[in-house]
């Protein structure tokens, strides 16, 4: 029986992008089902009753929730070729640490940059740059976060790249001026078909943000 | 060369307890170093410069941060005997989902129960019971979260048990009345030497909370 892979997702989500990239990297065909987060579908509520959030990866009828857990699941289910995580336990722990760091420290400030104003927005911008600098220092002169191979941390972070333009406009700063190596890394990632195919155009995100603010009632 | 294992920890931490239990389960001798979180030591700042938090597991001089990552690291580094995570990718993903759920959904409300008052405290209590009920429903009639074997989700959750008494007193509710199966599970876990050895006495936590509130300036 061929695998049935369904992805419940929402196009601007940097979390959903992780799972898209991971599936593309493994050459897994999947049925992408766009979700309306302001009117959640029965399948989303059924497949992720705890968090009621996208992305949800449904493999042969069984749901896997939380994007980084999905990335690991994809790596373990389709191990052939390019593993996302190294085999050495210490290096694996380091990769997971930075994936977790992105969730805990990078995502929050982005919301303040596009969603807040004044002091709160400034604090978000400052925090965001600081966090990106930590990532840049971890990246160093390597090609990818894990070294020569595109992997787990790259997948965890790359979706934020298509939000960089709108964040820079909202917060009035330049990421490239602060973190040139990180931008060079993102451009390298964008040359991969898996990434280019999975990330929406920055302009589309820029146009989407005012719409989103209206939808959630902060504009 | 024998392994050198150091744990930077703080005795009331339910996160630190995870790592203690995991090390005990694998029969790994470790050098426990109590940390003063209100006056952080040079070794803590050096070994976890990003978050500056305990627990930090230092294995042969190299730090691993974040408790659930440590639990996986311990499982992968000392695989003999009792694996914490199942080998099946789907079951692994489910275990990681519930570990992540405990971090995202169970911990937050506990702080409101002991640290807040009035409506905020009530909201925390309500949320906490709701989250415990979700865990109880996931546990069902199984011996442990993973089935017959004590593992990852048990390790992720059990440290909260020694906080239950003080939470019940602060929030004026009974966890056993709401979640009898969860309490039976916790009592089963407490029969394991690894757990009994790693969790402080509930009374000690109850006495500690007013002290903690003074220290962080909320009393």
TrEMBL record, chains A, B:
It comes from the Eukaryota. It is found in: Cytoplasm, Cytosol. The keyword Transmembrane helix does not apply. The keyword Cytoplasm applies. Residues 3-82 form the GST N-terminal domain. It catalyses: RX + glutathione = an S-substituted glutathione + a halide anion + H(+). It is an enzyme of class 2 (transferase). Is involved in the conjugation of reduced glutathione to a wide number of exogenous and endogenous hydrophobic electrophiles. This is Glutathione S-transferase. The gene is BnaA09g45090D.
């Amino acid at each position: 029986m061929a695998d049935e892979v369904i992805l419940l997702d929402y196009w601007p989500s940097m979390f959903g992008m992780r799972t898209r990239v991971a599936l593309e990297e493994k050459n897994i065909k999947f049925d992408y089902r766009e979700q309306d987060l302001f009117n959640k579908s029965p399948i989303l509520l059924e497949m992720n009753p705890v968090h009621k959030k996208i992305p949800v990866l449904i493999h042969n009828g069984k749901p896997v929730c939380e994007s980084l857990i999905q990335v690991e699941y994809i790596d373990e289910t389709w191990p052939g070729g390019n593993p996302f995580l190294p085999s050495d336990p210490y290096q694996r722990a380091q990769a997971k640490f930075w994936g977790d760091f992105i969730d805990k420290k990078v995502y929050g400030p982005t919301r303040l940059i596009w969603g807040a104003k004044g002091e709160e927005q400034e604090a978000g911008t400052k925090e965001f740059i600081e966090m990106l600098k930590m990532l840049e220092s971890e990246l160093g002169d390597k090609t990818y976060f894990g070294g020569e191979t595109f992997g787990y941390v790259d997948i965890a972070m790359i979706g934020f790249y298509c939000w960089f333009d709108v964040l820079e406009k909202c917060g009035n700063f330049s990421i490239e001026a602060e973190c040139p190596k990180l931008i060079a890394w993102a451009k390298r990632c964008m040359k991969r078909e898996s990434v280019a195919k999975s990330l929406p155009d920055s302009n589309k995100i820029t146009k989407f943000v005012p719409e989103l603010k209206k939808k959630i009632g902060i504009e």
